[in-house]
Write a structure and sequence with these properties.
de novo design (two linked rop proteins); transport; transmembrane; two-stranded antiparallel sheet; single chain; VCCN1/2; UPF0187 protein At3g61320, chloroplastic-like; mainly alpha
Length: 421
C-alpha cells in the first residue's frame, strides 16, 4: 500500500472497487445502478420538506363556523335589547320641580307617551319575547291554514282547543302580575324612605357640627369633618349603584390621602363613617356634645343596612320564575286557543297580549331594584350645596346676630322696667 506524501491530511473519498464481485458476475443481469462502483457521499441532516397534505374531501355537514354564526345571529336581538336596558339603568334621574310637575300632568301626556314609545327602554327590552311569540303565532296560523286548504296529508290535525281553560286561569294571571308589581313597588318605596332618612340625617349632622364646633383651633378638623359628612351619601350611592366611579365622585370632596384610604377599603361607606368617628374624637368638645354628635351616626348605619338588604335579598325567586313561566306558556298556547274565533287575527292578538302583559312584568322587574330609579346623584348634589351654603352663611349670620344684640341691649332699672340705651 502506497504511503501518502502528506500524512497530516485526510481524504474523504475512496477508490475501493469490489473486484472479485465484478469478475464473477460480469455477465449477470444486475441493474445498471448496481454495476456502478459505489461511492461515499456526505448526507445533509436537513430533510426536504414533506409534500403538502391532500385537500379534505367535500362534506355535506355544516361547519362549526356556520353554526356559531347562526347562534350569534339568534342572540343579536336579545343582546341589543339588554344593552339598551342597561344603558337606561345607568342614566341619571332628575328631581322634579314645579315646571316638571306641570309638564308631567299635562293633558297632552297621552299623545306624547304614545309618540315616544320607540324610545322607551321598557318597550325596546321586550322586543325579543314579543317577537318570538308573534313568530310562533305566525307559524301556527300558517300550519292551520295549510291543513284547512289540504296542502298537507289528511292525518295532520288542525291545532285548536277550547277557550275554557284560559277563561278560568286569566284571573289567576292577573292577580299574579298585580302582586308581583306591588311587591316590587314596596321595595322601591322602602329604598326611597331609606335614602330620605340618610339625606335628612346628613343635613342634620352637618348643621350640628357647624353650630356646635366653635373652637378656632379645630377649624381644620371641622372642615374635614364636614367634607366627610358630605362624602358619605356619595359613597353609599356608589356602593349600591352598578358601574359607579367613586374615585371621580369623591375627588372634589376628599383629599388625596384620604381618598386613597377610602378606595383601598373593602366597604367604602363604613370607611367614611370611621373617618367621621375619629374626627369627632380629635375635636375639643364637651362630652355631652360629642355624645350627641356620635348619636347622629346611627342613621348612617341604618341606611347602609336597609340598602344592603334591598340589594342582597330580591323578591323570592320562585315567585319571579312562576310569573315568567306562566306568561310564556300562556302566550305559546294562545294562538291555538284563539284559532277558531280569530284565524289569522291570532297574530296581532298575540302581539298585543304579549306586549301588554310582559310590559307589566318588566316594570315590576325594573323597580325591584329601587336605586337606579331614584335620583341619587342629584340628591347628593343637593346635600353638598346645602352644606356649602350653610358654611358660607355661618359667619354672616353670627355677625348679624351679634350686631342685633349690641343694638338692642337692655339695662334694667331699680323698679324692674328696662331702659333702652
Amino acid at each position: 500500500m502506497a504511503q501518502s506524501p502528506n500524512p497530516s491530511k485526510l481524504f474523504l473519498s475512496s477508490n475501493f472497487t469490489p473486484k472479485p464481485l465484478l469478475k464473477s458476475h460480469t455477465n449477470s443481469c444486475l441493474p445498471t445502478k448496481l454495476k456502478q462502483p459505489p461511492s461515499f457521499k456526505i448526507l445533509s441532516s436537513i430533510s426536504p420538506p414533506p409534500p403538502p397534505p391532500p385537500p379534505p374531501p367535500p362534506s355535506s355537514k355544516p361547519t362549526p363556523t356556520k353554526t356559531l354564526n347562526l347562534v350569534s345571529l339568534l342572540r343579536a336581538i336579545p343582546d341589543w335589547a339588554d344593552r339598551i336596558q342597561e344603558r337606561g339603568m345607568q342614566q341619571n334621574r332628575a328631581l322634579y320641580n314645579h315646571e316638571n310637575w306641570v309638564y308631567h300632568r299635562s293633558s297632552q301626556r297621552h299623545l306624547r307617551h304614545l309618540l315616544s314609545s320607540l324610545q322607551s327602554r321598557v318597550i325596546l327590552s321586550l322586543v325579543p319575547p314579543v317577537l318570538a311569540f308573534t313568530s310562533v303565532a305566525v307559524v301556527i296560523a300558517g300550519y292551520n291554514t295549510a291543513v284547512d286548504l289540504h296542502w298537507l296529508p289528511g292525518f295532520f290535525p288542525v291545532l285548536r282547543a277550547s277557550s275554557l281553560p284560559y277563561q278560568l286561569t286569566a284571573p289567576a294571571l292577573a292577580l299574579l302580575l298585580v302582586f308581583r308589581t306591588e311587591a316590587s313597588y314596596s321595595r322601591f318605596e322602602e329604598g326611597r324612605k331609606a335614602w330620605t332618612k340618610v339625606i335628612a340625617g346628613t343635613n342634620d349632622f352637618a348643621r350640628q357640627v357647624i353650630a356646635g364646633v366653635e373652637n378656632s383651633g379645630d377649624e381644620c378638623i371641622k372642615n374635614a369633618l364636614l367634607h366627610y359628612i358630605m362624602a358619605f351619601p356619595v359613597a353609599l350611592k356608589c356602593h349600591v349603584m352598578y358601574a359607579s366611579d367613586i374615585g371621580r365622585d369623591l375627588q372634589n370632596l376628599l383629599e388625596g390621602d384620604d381618598l386613597a384610604v377610602v378606595l383601598s377599603s373593602k366597604h367604602r361607606p363604613r370607611c367614611i363613617i370611621e373617618f367621621i368617628s375619629q374626627s369627632l374624637r380629635v375635636l375639643k368638645l364637651e362630652e355631652s356634645k360629642r355624645t350627641m354628635l356620635e348619636s347622629k351616626i346611627s342613621c348612617f348605619h341604618e341606611g347602609i343596612g336597609v340598602c344592603e338588604q334591598l340589594m342582597g335579598i330580591p323578591i323570592p325567586l320562585s315567585y319571579t320564575r312562576l310569573t315568567s313561566r306562566f306568561l310564556v306558556l300562556w302566550h305559546l298556547t294562545l294562538p291555538i286557543i284563539l284559532w277558531d274565533d280569530c284565524h289569522w287575527i291570532v297574530v296581532p292578538a298575540t302581539f298585543i297580549s304579549a306586549a301588554s302583559l310582559f310590559c307589566i312584568e318588566e316594570v315590576g322587574v325594573l323597580i325591584e331594584e329601587p336605586f337606579p330609579m331614584l335620583a341619587l346623584d342629584e340628591l347628593c348634589s343637593v346635600v353638598q350645596n346645602n352644606i356649602h351654603e350653610a358654611i358660607a352663611t355661618e359667619k354672616v349670620i353670627q355677625a348679624r346676630l351679634n350686631g342685633k344684640r349690641k343694638r338692642h341691649s337692655y339695662k334694667h332699672s331699680p323698679n324692674g322696667w328696662p331702659n333702652t340705651q
